[in-house]
């Protein structure tokens, strides 16, 4: 589900598993083990990894913010400032340039831009379920509207893969990635975030060629049976036992609830 | 009265309890009126529940100070803004009482967009014996009316009525976070994320914009207003806090639009504590003038600070509310707890301050003795007239008996809203859908 955190194996509310030391710059510790999920790209020092994860997490939060017509402005502004701060620091210490020139770096850049990986839970990937509608948000993010759903799907899986496999996959995949994507997506986020026009929800969804029906399906827990009717989907959503089980999603039911309500209302 | 919070014994009464609680039952604001006789709560379902303090009775002295439900009414309803295709929640963000002028009580309640003025009054008599209507209010057949009679007022069971007197709408584009009644008792202000408006109680169709921090280009937006309050005695002075951890004091005599502050309170950042979360945790979630008007108290994520109005460059006191969370900030960012808006309150004499934390814990700080205490609002410890035991959170190493480790704190149980009786040591603590009232032990 798209609310899954950046590192999908990490329980949402578990305070122990990640960043026990916080993200203080002084607390850099090269030995720190972040659950092994990022083992594939160990070459980068852990501070950078943490910063990257924080950036990813912030981008997801911003993306969720701008799905709402009226997000909590204080929260959105604070998250946006955090992203700006990280971006500034990355530009200053040259990490940004490095990322742009190295192929492994390219991987993390893509990871950062392709938010569709965030739309998937690891379990669903493992089961190899094909779910239409997953890719829709990433299009908004990448500004690439020509891509169709299935193509986005393949990108999504490949983006996820290197976390557990070797990074060679990156050389083969998607050579023509747009390097300006990061800045572009940031700008888009800030714009949407700050755009208070009444149309913002429509704007958001107008870039998505799938119908509300598909969004509903997506929000209702990625049913494998895609022929389900509109109302069935909503019912399924309201009874969590029948959805594809993912404990992470439940913690955000309220947010989801709200989104679904908006969709239904409009 | 003994001010020492650590040795003070507190007995409790337990008022509001729904084991079948829903989201709508979550209490979103708590406020005593100016005498302390009434206590109002607002919830996410748009309801206002008012409690009244029971009169002292000679044969049951231990019952002194118990609060019972006085009136319940639906203040705000969920609305849909068709123009913006936007749902407006009914959740009550703030309640503020007006000073009592006559037998009726008045209060302001607000959701994200609309402020309402409510009159709460008692009725114990009703008119009887109308000529044209019968007792049920139906018109009588004129041919049946053969004589004239004088209607009389007859006593009846006490009834408490809440009636909406004014609705102040359509003035806020963003979410209202604060309302504050001015000491002139004629005006009040309402603050949202980017603007503060000044209203007259009698006029609902216009308000004056006194602060506007909305940048011309919204892409440059990096700061929002988080709370605002009028000075308790000077009707021209108010403060507002921001998401960057600063407080601005404005004087409405200088100009109509208070874009330039008179005073700017800001503490320089401690470079040794700098992190990506510095700005988020310094964002001020509540600002309160002391009753004396000399000090301002601010709450940020980890601390509560007291500022002297005459010193802008740093607070005179800083109290750590839950410093053990400093190492958990990333997790708290991830699960969004870091954006929780904790409020803070003064006691009647400005000598003790109180604010909430997680795990249903709340903290009190004695400003004179510098002692502090952590107490817990929970059903287990709060049998009527039970005495609250101080709690301790164990940081690192060995956990002693009765201590709780940081890792076992429940972050879904948070105390955001509390209130302190204006003159006595009675406090109200909202813990999700439960309201706890604690008071000094009665001997």
TrEMBL record, chain A:
Coiled coil: none
Alphabetized InterPro entries for the sequence: E2F-SERTA_domain_protein, SERTA_dom
Biased composition (Polar residues): 146-164
Sequence ranges assigned to domain SERTA in this UniProt record: 47-94
Any Pfam family matching the protein: SERTA
Keyword Cell cycle: yes
UniProt region (Disordered), positions on chain: 129-164
Keywords for the protein's UniProt record, in alphabetical order: Cell cycle, Cell division
PANTHER family according to UniProt: CELL DIVISION CYCLE ASSOCIATED PROTEIN 4/SERTA DOMAIN-CONTAINING PROTEIN 2, CELL DIVISION CYCLE-ASSOCIATED PROTEIN 4
An example Gene Ontology biological process: cell division
Protein name per UniProt: Cell division cycle-associated protein 4
Automatic annotation (TrEMBL), chain B:
Record keyword Transport present: no
Gene3D superfamilies (UniProt xref): YVTN repeat-like/Quinoprotein amine dehydrogenase (2.130.10.10)
InterPro entries for this protein: PP2A_PR55, PP2A_PR55_CS, WD40/YVTN_repeat-like_dom_sf, WD40_repeat_dom_sf, WD40_rpt
GO cellular component: protein phosphatase type 2A complex
SUPFAM superfamilies linked to this entry: WD40 repeat-like (SSF50978)
Protein keywords: Repeat, WD repeat
Protein origin, superkingdom: Eukaryota
Family (UniProt): Belongs to the phosphatase 2A regulatory subunit B family.
PANTHER family named in the record: PROTEIN PHOSPHATASE PP2A REGULATORY SUBUNIT B (PTHR11871)
Name of the protein in its database record: Serine/threonine-protein phosphatase 2A 55 kDa regulatory subunit B
Source organism of this protein record: Grus japonensis
High-level lineage: Eukaryota, Metazoa, Chordata, Craniata, Vertebrata
């Amino acid at each position: 589900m798209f609310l899954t955190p950046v590192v999908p194996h990490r329980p949402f509310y578990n305070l122990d598993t990640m960043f026990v030391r916080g993200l203080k710059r002084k607390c850099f510790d090269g030995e720190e083990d972040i659950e092994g999920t990022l083992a594939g790209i160990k070459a980068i020092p852990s501070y950078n990894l943490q910063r990257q994860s924080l950036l990813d997490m912030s981008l997801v939060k911003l993306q969720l913010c701008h799905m709402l017509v009226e997000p909590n402005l204080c929260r959105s502004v604070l998250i946006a400032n955090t992203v700006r701060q990280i971006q500034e620091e990355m530009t200053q210490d040259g990490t940004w340039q490095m990322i742009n020139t190295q192929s492994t770096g390219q991987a993390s850049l893509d990871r950062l831009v392709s938010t569709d990986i965030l739309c998937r839970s690891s379990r669903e990937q493992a089961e190899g379920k094909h779910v239409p509608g997953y890719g829709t948000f990433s299009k908004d993010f990448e500004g690439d509207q020509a891509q169709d759903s299935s193509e986005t799907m393949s990108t999504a899986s490949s983006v996820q893969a290197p976390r557990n496999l070797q990074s060679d996959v990156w050389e083969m995949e998607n050579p023509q990635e747009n390097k300006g994507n990061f800045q572009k997506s940031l700008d888009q986020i800030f714009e949407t975030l700050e755009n208070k026009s009444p149309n913002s929800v429509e704007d958001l969804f107008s870039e998505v060629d799938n119908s509300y029906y598909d969004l509903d399906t997506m929000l209702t827990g990625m049913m494998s049976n895609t022929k389900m009717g509109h109302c069935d989907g909503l019912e399924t959503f309201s009874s969590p036992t029948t959805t594809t089980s993912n404990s992470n999603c439940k913690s955000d039911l309220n947010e989801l609830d709200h989104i679904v309500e908006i969709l239904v209302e409009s | 009265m003994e001010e020492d919070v650590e040795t003070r014994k507190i007995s409790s009464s337990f008022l509001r309890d729904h084991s079948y609680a829903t989201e709508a039952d979550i209490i979103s604001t708590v406020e005593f009126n100016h005498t302390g006789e009434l206590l109002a709560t607002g919830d996410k379902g748009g309801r206002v529940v008012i409690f009244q303090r029971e009169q002292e009775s000679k044969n049951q002295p231990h019952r002194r100070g118990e609060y019972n439900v006085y009136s319940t009414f639906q203040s705000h309803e969920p609305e849909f803004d068709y123009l913006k295709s936007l749902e407006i929640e009914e959740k009550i963000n703030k309640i503020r009482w007006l000073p009592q002028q006559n037998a009726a009580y008045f209060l302001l309640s607000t959701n994200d967009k609309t402020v309402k003025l409510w009159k709460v009054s008692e009725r114990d008599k009703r008119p009887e014996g109308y000529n044209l209507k019968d007792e049920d209010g139906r018109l009588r057949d004129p041919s049946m009316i053969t004589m004239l009679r004088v209607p009389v007022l007859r006593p009846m069971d006490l009834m408490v009525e809440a009636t909406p007197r004014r609705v102040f709408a359509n003035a806020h584009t963003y979410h209202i976070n604060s309302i504050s009644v001015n000491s002139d008792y004629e005006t009040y202000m309402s603050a949202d994320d980017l603007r503060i408006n000044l209203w007259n109680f009698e006029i609902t169709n216009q308000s004056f914009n006194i602060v506007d921090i909305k940048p011309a280009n919204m892409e440059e937006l990096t700061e929002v207003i988080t709370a605002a309050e009028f000075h308790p005695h000077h009707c021209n002075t108010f403060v507002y806090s921001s998401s960057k951890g600063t407080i601005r004091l404005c004087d409405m005599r200088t100009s109509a639009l208070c874009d330039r502050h008179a005073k700017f309170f800001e503490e320089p950042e401690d470079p040794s504590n700098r992190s990506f979360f510095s700005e988020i945790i310094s964002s001020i979630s509540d600002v309160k003038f002391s009753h004396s008007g000399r000090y301002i108290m601010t709450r940020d994520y980890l601390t509560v600070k007291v500022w002297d109005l005459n010193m802008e460059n740093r607070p005179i006191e800083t109290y750590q509310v839950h410093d053990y969370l400093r190492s958990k900030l990333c997790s708290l960012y991830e699960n969004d707890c870091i954006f929780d808006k904790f409020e803070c309150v003064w006691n009647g004499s400005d000598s003790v301050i109180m604010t909430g934390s997680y795990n249903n814990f709340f903290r009190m700080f004695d400003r004179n003795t510098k002692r502090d205490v952590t107490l817990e609002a929970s059903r287990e410890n709060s049998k009527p007239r039970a005495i609250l035991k101080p709690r301790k959170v164990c940081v690192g190493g060995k956990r002693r008996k009765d201590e709780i480790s940081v890792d076992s704190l429940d972050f879904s149980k948070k105390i955001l809203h509390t209130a302190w009786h204006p003159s006595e040591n009675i406090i109200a603590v909202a813990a999700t859908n439960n309201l706890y009232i604690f008071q000094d032990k009665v001997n």
